[in-house]
Structures are given as structure tokens and as C-alpha cells.
Amino acid sequence: MPLPPLPDTAVVLGAVVSTWREALERTGEALVTSGAATEAYTQAMIDLVDEHGPYIVISPGLAFAHARPGPTVRRDGLAVVTLREPVVFGHPHNDPVSVVLGLAVAEVGAHLESIGEIANTFNDPTVTGRLAAASTPDEVRAILGVPA
Description:
- This protein is of the alpha/beta class.
- The protein has a single domain (about 10-145), classed as Mannitol-specific EII, Chain A (3-Layer(aba) Sandwich), CATH 3.40.930.
- It has helices spanning about 20-35, 40-50, 110-120, 125-135, 135-145; strands spanning about 10-15, 55-60, 60-65, 75-85, 95-105.
- Strands 1-4-5-3-2 form a five-stranded mixed sheet, sandwiched between helices.
- About 40% of the residues are buried.
């Protein structure tokens, strides 16, 4: 399954936040603005980190925010938020975070496929730094290999 499209409205470059919660709020806003999710999905992403800890910080500098498929997802969607100043999520090895990916997936089976697809992209250790330095949505899409 290919990754969902990444419209300009789902890309936020150089966001100014001071906490991981604000970083997830900005990521959720991008998913809402692009039409992929409802505002309740943003809270669900935050709730999962509150409940399970910073497990979404999957590699140095990268957080992969998501919540369970369900009625808070309107359609499959991807968001990318880069942070002007990295923030601490509380991960023992991969903090601070400078790039937050947000994923909203409508169906359970597709959820796991999309996570695997995104994880494969980050097998290249330069991807997070290249995303953090990106200056346009087109550049972000080219790095991730996703359509607009």
C-alpha cells in the first residue's frame, strides 16, 4: 500500500512549539486542515503518549504520531511538521525531536501497512535531518516519495 498523499496543507515547516504536546497539537491541526482527521484525533494521539509514554519517538529526532483507526479519521492522511527548535518527548535515546510525522488511517489493516511503509523510509539515517532542513512542501514530498 502506498503512503497517503501529502497536500501542502499537511506540511508545517519551522513550527514554534515548546512542548511535545504542542508539537502533537500542530501535527493534529495539519491532519485536520488537510481533511484527514477530526480534532478528536489530535487528542487521541496525545492520550496515547500520556498512556504509553514516548514510544512514538522511533529514531533520533523523529516522532511518529498516530492514533487508532475509527470515527475520528475521515480518510487516510499524512502530515509532516518540522520544529524550529527540537523538543523533548521523554525518550531515553532519541530525544530531542525535530520532525513529527502524523498518520491517520481509516482501516485497521491499512494502519499497520502504512506504519511499515513509513518505517522503511527511515531506514536511511539521513532522512530525518533532510526533512528537518526542508524549506518547501515539494522538498518534503520528494524526500518521502509521496504525492501531493
